[in-house]
Structure formats: structure tokens, C-alpha cells
Amino acid sequence: MLVSIGDLVEDVVAHLRADPRKGTDTPTQVFRRRGGSAANVAAFAAQDNTPVRFVGQVGDDPLGRRLAAELGDCGVDTRVTHQGSTGSIIVLVDSRGERTFLTDRGASVQLAITADDVLDGADVLHVPVYSLVTDPLARTTSRLIGDASELGCAITIDLSSTAMIEEFGPAELRAFLETVQPATVFANDDEHGALGYEVGAPIRGAGTTIVKQGADPTLIVSAKGDVMEVPVKSLEVVDTTGAGDAFAAGYLGALLDGSSPRVAVDRAHKLAARCVQAPGATLTA
């Protein structure tokens, strides 16, 4: 089983038809979606037939109850605390499908307690760096990482965002990864560089480093520095929101099914392709 810990929020996705005009109206299409990196990974994994559990917190409010119910309806074992106010993220999507995030994570970062059994049956604990930068969620996540390591559960880390790397501190995050020794670290090329690594370099401490490069080939980098390139199929991009989460879900699901990293990246590409062709963090049929 895959366990994912972190944010469950509402995404308010605004597709801009033109650059924003200061002081007046800019035509947009607006979509409301369930969001949060950890929750996205859980939802996509469940939709890809991977047993998965989500651990997180939302507000004690109608929005939080709706988001938790939607996650459960996807087939996720939801272990959600209800307290505070549910967070929201405004996602501005330009004509190329690229996103800018305006974040209010709300109750997500207030997770202070988890049940003793949240790691029961877990094979992989997946942690976005979003879950490591703000207390009490960061303390809770670090404690769960320690528990998972003692149980022999593989740890996977998604670098998540250059802003999160800067907030954590690149040197501090490098040291953290060397201590945790994650089985896999996911990054895009910007995040990999923000951590202080040259193109194609392995992240120290990681068993495998996966570097996504948009339309360019994805890199599978071994701890010894061996690099395998996996081509990305060309397609029309509507919205890249959640694409990295879909990639992680597909990759981890394939590994849990016994696939090699090369085959797992192929499955990850296919799931991410279904995500970028729909608005928000959703999958096309």
C-alpha cells in the first residue's frame, strides 16, 4: 500500500485567455477542483488501481467535509482530521498551460496528531516537500518518516516547488535527504537545479533520482550516477496542474506492482498525460 501525507485543499483554477490587465477585467474560465499535492497523488493512485491511504487535515467546515468525501469516493482510504478552516489555492493558468499558485494552505499545515495505525500495511510513504516546511505538519511528517523507516517502509520525496526548496533551505534539504535516504526523489529540472545539482546528477542519499524535464526526456538517475533517458510523448497541454502528482502516482503504483524504474516511468508518463489534458488536477478518461 502507498501512504501519502500532506495537503488536501480546494484549487480555484483560472484559465487566463490573456495576460491579466491591472485595474480592470480579464476574461477567464474558472474551475473548482479538489487539490493539494499529497491528496492528488492519493486520488490519482487510486484511479490507477493502486491501494492508497491519505493522511492529512482539513477544516471543520462544509468544504473540508466535501473534499474528504470526494477523496474517499476516488477509492482512497482517507485518514483526515477536521479542525480549523480548509485551505484554498488560486491557480492561474496561462495560454501555454503553465501555472502560478497563490496559496492559503489553511488547516492542512495544522496536522499535529495521526492515529497509531496510519502506517499499517504500508509499503511506501510518499512525502511532498510541502509537508516538511511548516509546523506542526512538518514535525508530524518527520515523525511519520521515522516510524516508517523503523517499519522497513520505503520513503519517497517529491521536491514539489522551487519556493518550498528556498523556504526549507537548499543546504538543509540536501542534508535532510542524506539522513532520510529516500528510495526515490522526484524533481523537475528547476527543482533539481534549485537544490544545487548539475543536470543529470544523482541527489545524494536517494536510491533513485527522477528528473522530469517537461517535453524533454525524463531522466532516471541511479545513486552511482548512471543516467537513463525516457522519451515523453508529444501531446497538447491544457493545464499542467497536478501533472507531477499524477507522474508520482503512476510511477509508485508501477513499482508496487513489481515493475522496473524504466517501465514505471512509462506508466507515469501515461498517467501524467491524462492529467495535462484536463483543467485542474483531474484525469481524462
Bin the strand percentage. Answer: 25-35%
Q: What is the CATH class name? A: Alpha Beta
- In DSSP terms (H or I, runs of 4 or more residues), the helix count works out at 8
What is the residue-mean pLDDT, rounded to a whole number? 94
First-last Cα distance: 24 Å
**CA-based gyration radius:** 18 Å
The count of β-strands is: 13
Q: Pairing-aware structural class of the strands and helices?
A: alpha/beta
CATH superfamily: Ribokinase
Helix content: 25-40%
Please name the CATH topology.
UDP-N-acetylmuramoyl-L-alanine:D-glutamate ligase
What summary fits the major beta sheet? 9 strands, mixed
CATH architecture: 3-Layer(aba) Sandwich
Q: Tell me, what's the shape?
A: globular
Strand order, biggest sheet?
A: 5-4-1-8-9-10-11-12-13
Order of helices and strands: EEEHEHEEEEHEHHEHEEEHH
Low-pLDDT stretches: none
Structural write-up:
The chain is 32% helix and 28% strand. The protein is of the alpha/beta class and 285 residues long. A nine-stranded mixed β-sheet has the order 5-4-1-8-9-10-11-12-13, sandwiched between helices. The chain has a four-stranded mixed β-sheet with strand order 3-2-6-7. Helix 1 (37-47) packs across helix 7 and helix 7 packs antiparallel against helix 8. It is globular.
